[in-house]
Amino acid sequence: MRMRLMLLGGGNSLGQALIHQGAEEDIGFLAPRPPEQGWDAASLTQLLDDTRPDAVINLAYYFDWFQAEEVSDVRLAAQERGVERLAELCQHHGIILLQPSSYRVFDGSRATAYSEKDESAPLSERGQAIWRMEQSVRAACPKHVLLRFGWLLDDSREGSVGRFLSRAEQADEICLADDRRGNPTPVDDAARVLLAVIKQLDCQAPLWGTYHYGGHEATTPLALGQALLSEARNLHPLKVQDITPQAHAARPDAADEPQNAVLACKKILHTFGIKPRAWRAALPTLLDRYYRHG
């Protein structure tokens, strides 16, 4: 690896997966510890002025954007300013910016999978903040890769999988939508994709732009939950016996979550040669890590 790589957010689940996979290929990252209040415009300015890496992978806001149940408007606004400043700094110093994004930029009204050419229309405050972040990156830093992920699954206690498993240990009944669809994407798979993109950018391939990635086989929250329960029962006692189907419109997050969050992944395949992997195959490792760390 010729490029000096900086990773913001190396302590979260996706950052840890990226560091681990990079180490297996002798690819290292500068992974500075964030300031106590988190990365903001001022601390990012100081950091990049001091270090001048060749590329930045920005996972600084990973948990809030991909795992948190709720994020305050104030927090999102500060993160938007941070990304905008980071993009300006990357352009000023000639640094490549690799910025993850999300299916949340779409409203879910489309009947088929979303491609990179489809118009964004976010439903939630979080989706709107992520969409504005994308726009600021495009405007300020031409040498960027925006990578929109599907439903990211990690082993954190407070993440979406952790909240589900916690309910499964305590509740008699869990309801999940059977008419909402998306691409489950374990963080190990997301890290693999990020690393593959980084390696091609290291070959000075000017493959800038926006790309989609989600795990192979779109599914429903109901089917995903059933698969998680099936694997989790091999590792830990659960109280809940089964999952009750519920309509998307009846779910408490229906106003925020796209009913159709399926991403078309042809562009990333044709450009980088990255093939989607089956998310089901990654569940045993993900859950084993969850229960071991817990």
UniProtKB/TrEMBL annotation:
| SUPFAM superfamilies hit by this protein | NAD(P)-binding Rossmann-fold domains (SSF51735)
Keyword annotations from UniProtKB, A to Z = NADP, Oxidoreductase
Name the top EC class: oxidoreductase
User: What InterPro entries does UniProt report for this protein, alphabetically?
Assistant: dTDP_dehydrorham_reduct, NAD(P)-bd_dom_sf, RmlD-like-bd
State which pathway it belongs to.
Carbohydrate biosynthesis; dTDP-L-rhamnose biosynthesis
Its catalytic activity? dTDP-beta-L-rhamnose + NADP(+) = dTDP-4-dehydro-beta-L-rhamnose + NADPH + H(+)
What does the Swiss-Prot or TrEMBL cofactor note state?
Answer: Binds 1 Mg(2+) ion per monomer.
What's the Enzyme Commission number for this chain?
1.1.1.133
Q: Name one Pfam family in it.
A: RmlD_sub_bind
Which prosthetic group or cofactor does it need? Mg(2+)
* Domain RmlD-like substrate binding stretches: 3-291
Q: Does the keyword Disulfide bond apply?
A: no
What does the protein in this record do? Answer: Catalyzes the reduction of dTDP-6-deoxy-L-lyxo-4-hexulose to yield dTDP-L-rhamnose.
Can you tell me which family this protein belongs to? Answer: Belongs to the dTDP-4-dehydrorhamnose reductase family.
The protein depicted here goes by the name: dTDP-4-dehydrorhamnose reductase
Which organism encodes this protein? Metapseudomonas resinovorans
Top-down, what is the taxonomic lineage of the species of origin? Bacteria, Pseudomonadati, Pseudomonadota, Gammaproteobacteria, Pseudomonadales
